[in-house]
Write a structure and sequence with these properties.
The complex is a heterodimer of chains A (299) and B (293). Chain A has helices at residues 2-48, 53-57, 69-78, 91-122, 128-137, 147-156, 163-167, 174-184, 189-197, 202-213, 215-230, 234-239, 248-255, 265-285, 287-297. By secondary structure, chain A is an all-alpha fold. In chain A, helix 1 packs across helix 14 and helix 3 (69-78) crosses helix 14 (265-285). Chain A is flat. Classes of the chains: A mainly alpha (299), B mainly alpha (293). Chains A and B meet through helix 1, helix 4, helix 5, helix 6 and helix 9 of A and helix 1, helix 3, helix 4, helix 5 and helix 7 of B.
Chain lengths: 299, 293
């Protein structure tokens, strides 16, 4: 009797081990497949950027690197690829514009949101909640739903085709203000009391206490807002007709003519790699802050 | 909620709020007001005179077959994008949450597409699905499929859905993973000891516990599919072929920027605003409730 029971236990243990091994194989398989699906378009693009125009144009989809990488990247950087209806803009120009736009938007959002959250949390003044709600409501008015009127406002203010016009309207930020407000509310009252006892004014308190405490929140927001700024599409499409101000995402799509096989696909792919690198680098290198920023701004 | 100890002064806080307020008023409230105002106006063909038409722009829209088609496209498109992006993200998050070697590497490799702009995602998938230079596009052709998203509306829709969903998976993945990691181990162990099989554990225990995250993500994904996918559609199909991939947001752009039909475009903007407002309201009401969990 006891012999049969032992065998049973061993058989069960073996079955459970087998099941766990099977589960593990399945997990690795599923994750690897997921990663591959994510990586496939990037791989094709990277490979494409190392071949000449004819190889891709012929339709032989290359799966291994070619020898034209240096030539392609140098040409895209200095001259850019010509679209069908547009003259070429060097990738260096477009990348510079995108970088400037993303930095101005990210830093601008952080700066004005810090100030307004500071005002709303640490002061009491008439209309405090009205201001707070006005900022909050902007969440419900994304650029996309007020395209035409905003464009008309920009025309009235002569901001079309300027870096200022490209960035200024995107700097207002309800999410950043809410995040900083949430964070400021956790700063202990004793800090404020101590500052008052020491005779420090509000701006001194802001500079010496609030700013140093907010560094992590600022880094987290920076990642999110940098990507937001870099990836803008509709707004630059509307605001920029002067191609010296072209940003890389919009410029890239302009390189692809519709229904046209005469595209310089190798240069388009090279430019796509350029457009991809900075935001991906920011996410991968600042992953910890990025996840913090993402999960906290959305609360 | 507010602080007990605060600074005195009235001029300073107004000064601090000034930059945010100027931008908000000039670029948000003024244009939004103009949209509402213009939605009740109609310009003649030459833009010389306008007349007040009250709700006529709106009633016209609801009788316009092209607008109703765009609305229907939007429903199909957003449902498919949300379902695809949420489903695959949840599946991957469940796998990545298991105790396996290299989990951190897998996470990084699944997170980075967040950084890809929607329009750029469209271009990347174009390299795959292009009928003459794309890997999959050519493979489909050699299998005898008549694949050309530039002339076939259904194929065009499939492509914009895939590109849009692909970009959104990493966002959902991050939130699902955070949600899974916050489920106490004791709950899962209790279920396992009670003899619940993995599938049963997932649908009976894990999925219900994740429902707040899922619901939040559903709203976010719908907002994304409604508004942020303009770049995907503009870069890939321009709403075509015909009007097969024209969504509501794309139509606002076409009518306002290309057809210069300001009254109708403004009316469409107002409708979209109402949609965002209701989605945001749902999201915040729900999040307030989540705090009590």
């Amino acid at each position: 009797m006891s012999g049969a029971a032992t065998i049973d236990v061993e058989r069960l243990a073996a079955a459970s081990r087998r099941r766990r091994a099977r589960d593990r194989v399945f997990t690795y398989f599923a994750l690897t497949l997921g990663v591959l699906i994510f990586a496939l378009p990037i791989w094709i693009t990277l490979i494409g950027s190392t071949h000449d125009t004819d190889t891709i144009g012929r339709g032989d989809v290359p799966l291994l690197p070619g020898s034209e990488a240096f030539a392609n990247y140098a040409r895209a950087w200095d001259e850019g690829g010509g679209g069908r209806n547009t003259f070429a803009v060097p990738a260096s120009t477009m990348l510079w514009n995108s970088l400037l736009m993303a930095l101005i938007i990210a830093c601008g959002k952080i700066a004005i949101s810090l100030l307004s959250a500071f005002a709303v949390v640490f002061f009491s003044f008439p209309g405090r909640m009205v201001f707070f709600w006005m900022i909050f409501i902007t969440l419900m008015l994304p650029v996309e739903v007020r395209i035409i009127p905003t464009f008309q406002v920009m025309t009235d203010l002569a901001l079309i085709d300027t870096m200022m016009g490209l960035t200024l309207p995107l700097i207002a930020s309800a999410t950043a203000t809410l995040l900083f407000r949430q964070f400021f509310l956790t700063i202990p009252d004793e800090y404020v009391e101590a500052a008052k006892v020491d005779g420090a004014g509000p701006m001194r308190f802001f500079k010496d206490v609030v700013l140093p405490l907010s560094v992590t929140s600022m880094a987290a927001l920076f990642v999110i807002q940098f990507i937001y700024g870099w990836n803008q599409y509709l707004w630059p499409l509307l605001m920029v007709s002067n191609r010296d101000l072209e940003t890389v995402i919009v410029g890239l799509t302009k390189m692809i003519g519709i229904g046209d096989t005469q595209n310089e696909w190798n240069l388009i792919m090279t430019t796509a790699v350029f457009a991809l690198l900075p935001p991906v680098a920011v996410v991968v290198l600042m992953q910890r802050w990025f996840i913090k920023g993402l999960t906290e701004t959305e609360k | 909620m507010r602080k007990k100890v605060i600074f005195r002064g009235v001029a300073l806080p107004y000064l601090l709020l000034l930059p945010q307020m100027i931008i908000t008023l000039v670029f948000f409230f003024w244009p939004a007001g103009m949209a509402v105002w213009q939605s009740a106006q109609r310009e003649d063909a030459f833009g010389l005179s306008t007349q007040f038409v009250a709700f006529e722009n709106f009633t016209d829209l609801f009788h316009d077959a092209i607008y109703l088609n765009a609305a229907w496209n939007t429903v199909i498109f957003s449902t498919a994008v949300a379902a695809l992006a949420l489903g695959s993200a949840l599946f991957l998050a469940v796998q990545a949450d298991k105790h396996i070697r290299g989990a951190g590497v897998y996470k990084t490799l699944l997170i980075w597409p967040y950084a890809v702009a929607p329009a750029l995602a469209a271009v990347l998938w174009l390299f795959i699905f292009h009928p003459s230079i794309g890997l999959v596009g050519k493979a489909l052709a050699s299998l005898g499929v008549n694949w050309d998203y530039r002339v076939n509306g259904g194929q065009a829709m499939t492509m914009v859905i895939i590109a849009s969903a692909w970009k959104q998976v990493s966002y959902n993945f991050i939130f699902f993973l955070a949600g899974l990691q916050s489920i106490p181990n004791s709950v899962l162990e209790a279920a396992a000891i009670d003899g619940a099989r993995p599938m049963r554990r997932f649908w009976g225990v894990i999925f219900p516990l994740l429902s707040p995250t899922t619901f939040f993500l559903l709203v976010v994904n719908l907002v994304y599919a409604f508004f942020d996918t303009f770049g995907v559609i503009h870069a890939l199909t321009r709403g075509g072929p015909g009007n097969a991939t024209e969504t509501l947001i794309y139509k606002v752009y076409v009518d306002g920027v290309q057809n210069l039909n300001f009254g109708s475009s403004a009316a469409q903007s107002v409708i979209l605003m109402l949609i965002v407002i209701s989605l945001t309201a749902i999201q915040f009401r729900f999040i307030e409730r989540r705090v009590h969990y």
